[in-house]
Amino acid sequence: MGFESMADMEKAAAAGKIPLWKAVMEEDMKERSVSMKETMDKMRERYQAMKQADTDYEENLKSFSGLSGGDGANMQRLVREGEAVSGGFMGMVVTRALKMGESNACMKRIVAAPTAGACGVVPAVFLTYEQFYGIPERTMTEGLFMAAGTGQVIARRASISGAQGGCQAEVGTASAMCAAALTSIRGGSNEQILSAGAFAMKSLLGLVCDPLGGLVEIPCIRRNVTGAVSAVACSDMAMAGILTRVPFDEVIDAMGEIGEMMPGGLKETSQAGLAVTETGKRVALDLAKRNQTPQC
Fold it and tell me: pTM score > 0.85 for this model?
């Protein structure tokens, strides 16, 4: 059944004198009645799928709507030319977040982390961190347990659905998962890990879900970039000893409450926000015309 709260996860880790990620792994072993090897292999399989999705990105592929495609390659060229002010590491985080979001829009295979709409955050940071710092794949896989456990608690206490809680529930959750997991991989204390997750979620509280034409493309893909970049910054703050004043569980509960208060038009219905700008209306009209045209 997983953990009811991050505090429960922390208690389980303390009782077993094990890291938070391992408490999540052991809970999975218990819940699914599998061995440590089986649960590690399953998580490694997910990480390999993230890597494959990154490798399989196609620069010239466009989504059916024509709204997405090629931007990941454009960003990568800027980084390779040394023109990215954000630098090599962060430039590649941005690049990979764009690539993953575009691949999702183009119906290619991705890993929902925790959802397809937020699929770019965790792999963008994880793959880039492994690449730049030479981290063993097993360590990165262990970090995914921390990410998964964090996402499970958020899903239980609040929501990971844009239709229920807005984009704060999707990209906000992904960013919190990523920040906590990255801090775990970096050897942060439990307090630092939970602070990083809390920082990331606090940074995106209230983020609405208002996609143009009802598609998970604009502004969703760029929001994955925001979530990924924020996760790195939040991990750095926590590793610097900056700690959250509001416990992570309370931040999660606040997110859930905000989602309930959010108008329905801002929860994936495309009835408000960017979706009803003049450009948004044109996109919706164009898509409607396309859908009425017989496809060969």
Answer: yes
